[in-house]
């Protein structure tokens, strides 16, 4: 005759979950129980190891110092068990590794017998195994020099990590023209038909091209006197600040605060004027070692080469001549025919106003930005002229260090241009982001991008145009995960920091080896001595 099981009645717990600790029913059945709170973590619901009373007493005393509910030794996993004697041996993996080492040694000309090889071969010193490839965490760090040397009398004002910049955002409109200057020529559409088989040689054309710093601009000086603006900046400087989180190489921007007005300047010949190459590659170009012959593929040499290519490419792909010229409302403010007899390059300057007031600010906050356009083109749909930005990417040597896994343009540009462009976006994210933002600041919706390669990979003075593609800067930014709103947020935060400082001279530095920006207060005559010395030597 089977007996039915009846669940005993337990008293309700007033201060804990479950029955009371001294419940008479549990005491009569000799069932161990300890109260626990709702927030306690239970390691075991039941213990089937059958620990004896001595072990339970030892573990209970060990955990008496812990909080409420944590002394339930019967239901908690003991993390102090010694697992040092527990090992897993995979004989198949070890055998494969030994065979692989034997194969590698035989290919290198070393002894095929691995017994005692490290002692006798001379190729593999004992205790120092040969590396056949760096892992990411083992790769030696490349230490770069700063763009300027921090002096002892410079005062650190602010240090900004890139992680703080990535969360900033500010929605700003397209901007409006305040004044336009210069002259531009129409783009030569025949270059759209250039390809690898119908390439064209890049010509070196001498043209008068001007890109002065902000405070030396006569239009900016006139606008500063009007009192309509309190912040003045050029598009090349502004784009670097807006794209700062993508920068790897060091750079610097001079900030002058005078009578409450901010002027963002660059150093003549500084990194803002140069065009970096493969800066964002996993393995960017490296400095040449002492005695190395590969001096044309260093970061500095490639930047100068890229600058040369961009200036000549923009001059070559336009139809010059007075009959084709598009004159702006005002002439070029920097050109004096008596000082420079060279013909003017195709370049227009649009001084544009942007309201960077936030949504919670009722008063407008206008700033003046000098933007640049390189050419114009007639819209095939509307028949109206529209401005263009003309830039060029350059291929140096796909087998050289720092090539960034680039494909051979002469073999792949016509067949898979998308793959080449994807590689360039990865290796030159900062450069392409800056170009796109500069185009949008100037009110340009499309730009021409040339693909220029060395005629001989070992010669950096002779180049060939392999193709010209048309892109939209807004599409570029979205594909590279670059936000214009984030860029405006970064620039506005820099302005807010500077507005809290007294009138003076400051410098914004990108750390050469870390993702950090620093603002220093510097003497009023900083960076001026070297220029005066150069002028004196030239005069002599």
Automatic annotation (TrEMBL):
It comes from the Eukaryota. Residues 44-67, 100-133 are annotated as: Disordered. It comes from Tortispora caseinolytica NRRL Y-17796. Keywords: Cytoplasm, Initiation factor, Protein biosynthesis, RNA-binding. One of its GO terms (molecular function) is mRNA cap binding. It is found in: Cytoplasm. The keyword Transmembrane does not apply. Pfam families: eIF-3_zeta. mRNA cap-binding component of the eukaryotic translation initiation factor 3 (eIF-3) complex, which is involved in protein synthesis of a specialized repertoire of mRNAs and, together with other initiation factors, stimulates binding of mRNA and methionyl-tRNAi to the 40S ribosome. The eIF-3 complex specifically targets and initiates translation of a subset of mRNAs involved in cell proliferation. In the eIF-3 complex, eif3d specifically recognizes and binds the 7-methylguanosine cap of a subset of mRNAs. PANTHER family: EUKARYOTIC TRANSLATION INITIATION FACTOR 3 SUBUNIT 7 (PTHR12399), EUKARYOTIC TRANSLATION INITIATION FACTOR 3 SUBUNIT D (PTHR12399:SF0). Residues 271-285 are annotated as: RNA gate. GO terms for cellular component: eukaryotic 43S preinitiation complex; eukaryotic 48S preinitiation complex; eukaryotic translation initiation factor 3 complex. The keyword RNA-binding applies. Belongs to the eIF-3 subunit D family. The RNA gate region regulates mRNA cap recognition to prevent promiscuous mRNA-binding before assembly of eif3d into the full eukaryotic translation initiation factor 3 (eIF-3) complex. InterPro entries: eIF3d. GO terms for biological process: cap-dependent translational initiation; formation of cytoplasmic translation initiation complex. HAMAP family: eIF3d. Component of the eukaryotic translation initiation factor 3 (eIF-3) complex. This is Eukaryotic translation initiation factor 3 subunit D.
């Amino acid at each position: 005759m089977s007996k039915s099981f009846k669940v005993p009645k337990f008293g309700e717990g007033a201060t804990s979950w479950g029955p009371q600790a001294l419940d008479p029913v549990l005491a009569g059945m000799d069932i161990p129980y300890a109260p626990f709170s709702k927030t306690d973590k239970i390691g075991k619901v039941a213990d089937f190891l059958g620990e004896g009373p001595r072990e339970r007493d030892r573990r209970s005393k060990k955990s008496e110092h812990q909080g409420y509910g944590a002394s339930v030794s019967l239901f908690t996993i003991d993390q102090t068990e010694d697992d040092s004697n527990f090992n897993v041996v995979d004989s198949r993996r070890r055998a494969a590794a030994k065979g692989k080492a034997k194969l590698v040694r035989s290919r290198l000309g070393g002894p095929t017998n691995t017994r005692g090889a490290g002692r006798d071969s001379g190729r593999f010193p004992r205790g120092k195994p040969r590396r056949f490839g760096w892992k990411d965490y083992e790769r030696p760090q490349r230490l770069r020099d700063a763009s300027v040397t921090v002096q002892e009398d410079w005062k650190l004002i602010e240090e900004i990590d890139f992680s703080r910049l990535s969360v900033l955002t500010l929605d700003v409109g397209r901007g409006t023209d305040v004044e336009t200057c210069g002259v531009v020529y129409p783009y030569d559409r025949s270059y759209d038909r250039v390809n690898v088989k119908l390439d064209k040689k890049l010509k070196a054309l001498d043209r008068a091209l001007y890109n002065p710093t902000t405070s030396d601009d006569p239009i900016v000086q006139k606008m500063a006197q009007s009192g309509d603006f309190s912040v003045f900046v050029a598009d090349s400087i502004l784009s670097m600040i807006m794209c700062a989180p993508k920068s790897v190489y060091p750079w610097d921007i001079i900030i002058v605060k005078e009578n409450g007005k901010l002027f963002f300047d660059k150093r003549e010949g500084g990194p803002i004027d140069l065009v970096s190459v493969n800066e964002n590659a996993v393995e960017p170009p490296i400095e040449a070692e002492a005695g190395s012959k590969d001096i044309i593929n260093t970061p500095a040499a490639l930047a100068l080469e890229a600058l040369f290519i961009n200036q000549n490419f923009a001059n070559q792909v336009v139809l010059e001549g007075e009959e084709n010229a598009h004159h702006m409302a005002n002439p070029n403010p920097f050109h004096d025919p008596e000082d420079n007899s060279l013909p003017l390059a195709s370049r227009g300057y649009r001084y544009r106003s942007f309201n960077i007031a936030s949504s919670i600010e009722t008063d407008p906050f206008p700033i003046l930005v000098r933007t640049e356009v390189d050419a114009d083109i007639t819209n095939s749909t509307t028949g109206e002229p529209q401005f263009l930005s003309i830039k060029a990417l350059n291929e140096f040597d796909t087998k050289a260090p720092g090539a960034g896994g680039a494909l051979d343009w002469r073999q792949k540009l016509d067949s898979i241009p998308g793959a080449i462009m994807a590689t360039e976006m990865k290796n030159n994210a900062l450069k392409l982001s800056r170009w796109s933002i500069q185009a949008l600041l100037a009110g340009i919706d499309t730009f021409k991008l040339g693909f220029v390669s060395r005629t001989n990979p070992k010669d950096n003075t002779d180049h060939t145009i392999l193709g010209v593609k048309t892109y939209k800067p807004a599409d570029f930014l979205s594909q590279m995960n670059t936000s214009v709103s984030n860029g405006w947020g970064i620039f506005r935060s820099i302005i807010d920091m500077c507005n809290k400082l007294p009138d003076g001279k400051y410098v914004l530095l990108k750390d050469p080896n870390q993702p950090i920006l620093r603002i220093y207060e510097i003497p009023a005559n900083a960076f001026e001595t070297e220029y005066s010395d150069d002028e004196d030597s030239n005069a002599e």
